[in-house]
Predict the structure.
Amino acid sequence: MPTDHEAVIKRLLTSLNESKYDEYEKLLTDDYVEEYPQSGEVIRGPKNSRAIREQYPGGALQDRIETAGARVAATEARWLRTPTFTFVRVEGTGSAGAASLRTRYPDGSRWWIVLFYELRGDRLARGTFYFAPEFEAPEWRKPYRENESARP
Amino acid sequence: MPSEHESFNTRMAKAMNDRDFQAYEALLTDDYVGEYPQSGEVIHGPKNARAIIEYYPGTLPRDTLDLKSARVGATEARWVRTPTFTVVRAEGTGNVGFSAMQSRYPDGSTWWVINFYELRGGRLARSTTYFAPLFEAPEWRKPYVEQRGPTADR
């Protein structure tokens, strides 16, 4: 049976938005690995991943992740990591996906979190996270863009 | 079989790294739409997309993209956009991929460029791009974290 990616991601977001860290921890596999390529940080195991959320300076905000703006793409493919960290597709049941979500930080700033992930069963086994701040559209690009907004 | 996605990403990166804007434009469909959710910008058509790369203030350097850092995930799924912009999976042959790679900017800074994209006939039809700066790992997280090096192997 294919994994319901949307349901798993939704459960993760709800547990974080409601600061239910016991629940959050259970949604991760015991050998869960989380990585932040922007800083080079690697976090291993549900306990460490939980600690990072729970002990965020300034405190965790309730409902800080906007589920309405979430985009999730699930796949029927399985990722395989080559020695050079390229992801290539191999056959298998769908374990990989990508998601982007908008979040508020304690200082009031808004960021997008972009996540490449792998599921095992209904739990998150691996996550590669990117953090991208909102920014003002620069003047020089005005001639080339529409007036519509890509923000949710 | 190496996927269409891998060869597409290689050609796209080569066009940008060689500053070959003609080749870049030819890799986009006529009705290409690019969006930057961080700023809300939406770019329609290959000409506009090309202008943004070509006229970047200070000029994007040759070899702006670090291919060693590239991560590409392709899928067998097709995205369908709902009115609320949620992306859901529908049946079909794989036209969707995601990629992340490091890019150097004219001011010397390095950013990760992350792209959710859709291909049509080997060309880019839609992309949603995010730009994420490098940052120093904060002190408070150190007890919970292992640290990788400062280079593309992140």
Observations:
- The longest strand of chain B covers residues 110-120.
